[in-house]
Each structure stands twice: as structure tokens, then as C-alpha cells.
Amino acid sequence: MPLPKAELHLHIEGTLEPELAFALAARNGITLPYEDTEALRKAYLFDDLQSFLDLYYGLMAVLLTEEDFEELADAYLARAAEQGVRHAEIFFDPQAHMVRGVGIGTVIEGLGRALDRSEERHGISTRLIMCFLRDQSAESALETLEAAKPYLDRIIGIGLDSAEVGHPPAKFREVYEAAAALGLRRVAHAGEEGPPAYITEALDVLGVERIDHGLRCMEDAQLVERLVSERVPLTLCPLSNVRLRAVDVLEEHPLARMMDAGLLCTVNSDDPAYFGGYVDDTFHAVREALGLDRERLRELARNSFEASFLDGSARDEELRARYLAEVAEYSFD
Ligand code: ADE
Ligand code: ZN
């Protein structure tokens, strides 16, 4: 039985496995520019974030109907359950679908159908986080927030993803202010490829509660000190960092050093269909590569629930307490 954990950094579109991509393509009458699933998998050799994003956005062409989004999310949740996930806070990229003529309602209602059944079917509580694409304009983000207004009861918060360098957090000040006024929680990718200053800006200008990735904080000792003292959670994705060349090899990943420094680290899968593993696979990989002992792994699992947004109601608190008890009682043997 895998260690119980929450997954806090997971792009639902990044769970699109080649088999499902081809099945949806066939159903929707779309021809993919790959011979078969094997040829598609062979294309998963990335030089950096942008080379991944090009493929990631391209493959989304197969996602058209509510059923498609429902199947995508249900397939992820089934795999996540096998990986010990008890709670998942799931990102989605509405602009990447709206630009193709797929309405935000189709995306949210489709994902929602799978999420509504998740506790019963998979034993996983869920939340949805709507991400804005930072390489699109601030106006487009504001329009997307406006379009999401009829569905806000399904969304816990907002995030910021896509190509980081050259698109600093401050570009999105207005939409983050508007989201805060609507009662939405706030997170943002920062310090994945972008500089440590983007992490500071995400905290100070966007008011985020968690930093997605945050890897490059290690280049700035003062920033590390701040993140430690303010207990800002970082949602790290070690397999993603290797595949997108943020680190050369997993053995050189700073996760263990970050934990030693007192940072509140969590381990997540980011886009598991593309990066060679789901979240428990990632736990195993970092354990091997970095020599993390059992108490370090337990700390990562505990952090995942503590950093989650399971704090909005008595029911949330009850769930979180139950999950934390499971982590405390977990036996590695
Ligand atoms: N969208 C999907 N995965 C991403 C990542 N690792 N960084 C930025 N945007 C993303
Ligand atoms: Zn990500």
C-alpha cells in the first residue's frame, strides 16, 4: 500500500496518456500527426519547458466534449488512487481550450462530472484550480475569469502557468486582485525556469499562498529564509525538472537540501503522462536518487495535506485530520 498523500501540482491536461489521446482522436474524427502511440511517446524528448508546451498544447486538440474531459479526469483519478492519493488539487488550462472553440463550461462541467464521483469511486477528495496562461495577455486572463463566473462554485482558486521567462507575475496583478475579491485562493508557478525574483513577486504582488515549483529559490539565501519563516509551501515536481532540464539528473535535485533548509516541500507529478511517472512513482524515484529516509517521506506526505486547501470548513478539517492520521500511522513495511 502506497504512502497516503495529497497531490497539489497536477495539470489535468498533462495526464493525457497516448492511448487515451488516440482513442479520443478516433472518436472525434481528428488525425494526430503521429503514426501510433509508440511514435507519440518517442516525441517526448524535451529540451526545455517550451518544447514540452508545444507538444502539450498540440495534443489537446483531441479534447472537445464534456465526455472527453470527464474521461480524462476519471482516468487520472483511477491512477492516482493506485498511487496513494487521498486528495487532489487539480489544475486546468481553460484558455488552451477556449482558443480552439471549446467553451469553459464544457471543460468545467466535464471535469466536474468525474470529480463529483471521485470520493465515492476512487476515495479521493478533489478541488479545481483554474490556471491562466502567462504567455497570453493580462486582458485574456481577465476575460477568462469573467467567463468562469457562472462556475465559481466548482473552482477553489487560480494559478499561473505556461512559459515563465519574460512573463513576470506582476503582469497579472489585476486578475489576481479580482480573483481575491471573489474569494478565490491563489497560487502561481514561479522559479521553475524563471529567476528567484519571480517567486518574491508572486508572493508580494499576487498574494499567492503556495509557490508551484519554486526550485530556483535556492539561488537566493534571503528568499529561502523568508519562505521558511513564512512557511510558504513549494509544490516541487522532481521528474518534471529532470525531463525539462531544470536539473541535469535526479541525483542532483535540490529536494533533500531544500528540506534540510527547513522549506515546506511537497512532491508532485506535474504532467505525469509526459514525465515518466505519477506521484508515488516520483516518491520512489526521489527516495532512491536522494536517499530520503522514511521519516523524510512521511514529512513530505504530511506537508502535502498541510499545504492543501482543505481548511475551508469543518468537513475539510475533518478530512485533513483523517488523512494526517493515516500518514502518522502508515507503516513502510
Ligand atoms: N503547464 C503544464 N505543465 C507546466 C509546467 N511544468 N510549467 C509551466 N506550465 C505548465
Ligand atoms: Zn506545473
The share of residues in extended strands comes to 5-15%
Structural class: alpha/beta
Neighbour order of strands in the largest sheet? 1-2-3-4-5-6-7-8
Given this structure, which CATH class is correct?
Alpha Beta
Shape: globular
Q: What's the number of structural domains?
A: 1
How many helices does DSSP assign? 17
The CATH homologous superfamily name equals Metal-dependent hydrolases
What ligands does this structure carry? Answer: adenine, zinc ion
**What is the H-and-E element order?**
EHHHHEHHHEHEHEHEHEHHEHHHH
| Count of extended strands | 8
Which segments are poorly predicted (pLDDT under 50) over 5 or more consecutive residues? none
Overall CATH architecture:
Alpha-Beta Barrel
CATH fold label: TIM Barrel
Which terms would index this structure?
binds zinc ion; eight-stranded parallel β-sheet; binds adenine; single chain; 333 residues; alpha/beta; 17 helices; TIM Barrel
SSE topology:
Elements: E1 5-11, H1 18-28, H2 37-42, H3 49-59, H4 66-82, E2 85-92, H5 94-98, H6 104-116, H7 118-122, E3 125-133, H8 138-148, E4 157-161, H9 173-181, E5 185-190, H10 196-204, E6 210-213, H11 221-229, E7 233-236, H12 238-243, H13 255-260, E8 264-267, H14 272-275, H15 279-290, H16 294-306, H17 314-329
Parallel strand pairs: 1-2, 2-3, 3-4, 4-5, 5-6, 6-7, 7-8
The structure holds adenine and zinc ion.
